[in-house]
Amino acid sequence: MKLCGYTLEDVKAGRLAELKTRVGAYGLAKAAEDCGVGEPTLNDIIGELLKPGRDPRDELPPVLLRKDVLEISDLKPGMVLTGTVRNVIDFGAFVDIGVHQDGLVHVSQISNKFIRHPSEVLAVGDPWGWTASQDLRASLRATLRKSSPS
């Protein structure tokens, strides 16, 4: 940012409209080298700074959902459905299952083989086949289990 004459206050206030032009005038290759990153990475950083608050998951293809499952109460134990991975984290993955909240798949349920991290087998946007189970006595919550071995 300093290379282009911006301050932290400029970033916080969103005053970066000329960032791409200023980096171009400085030289993209030189700026990338000075920052210790590659040119594609610097381009990604610039793009993200110009669109603060954008959620890249919004650009994913829409989830194909069943029309008969609109609420968590519509889920029946044993239903096999499809969702889309929305986020991958250390202890599992969140899957859009079409019931107004994402379901959490624990890392132990992601694969039939041992994995150290869910990102070994899942990425944001991946389709996820799952089988619903429901514990109606404790609370209405979806427990997602892989419906086919991986």
Summarize the structure.
The protein has 150 residues and is an alpha+beta fold.
Q: Would you write up a description of this structure?
A:
- There is one protein chain.
- The chain has 150 residues and is of the alpha+beta class.
- The protein folds into 2 domains: 53 residues, no CATH class; 88 residues, OB fold (Dihydrolipoamide Acetyltransferase, E2P), CATH 2.40.50.
- The chain is built from 5 helices and 5 strands; from the N terminus they run H-H-H-H-E-E-E-H-E-E.
- Strands 3-2-1-4-5 form a 5-stranded antiparallel β-sheet.
- Helix 3 crosses helix 4.
- It starts with 7 loop residues before the first helix and ends with a strand.
- 18% of the residues are buried.
Lateral strand order in the biggest sheet: 3-2-1-4-5
* Count of spatially separate domains: 2
Percent of residues in beta strands?
Answer: 15-25%
How can the largest sheet be summarized?
Answer: 5 strands, antiparallel
Order of helices and strands: HHHHEEEHEE
Q: Estimate the helix proportion, in percent.
A: 25-40%
Average pLDDT, to the nearest integer? 77
Radius of gyration equals 21 Å
Low-confidence stretches: 134-142
Total strand count, please?
Answer: 5
Q: How far apart are the termini?
A: 44 Å
Q: What overall form do the CA principal axes indicate?
A: elongated
**Topology-level CATH name of the largest domain:** OB fold (Dihydrolipoamide Acetyltransferase, E2P)
Give me the CATH superfamily of the largest domain: Nucleic acid-binding proteins
Structural class: alpha+beta
What's the CATH C level of the largest domain?
Mainly Beta
Task: Give me the CATH architecture of the largest domain, please.
Answer: Beta Barrel
**What's the helix count?**
5
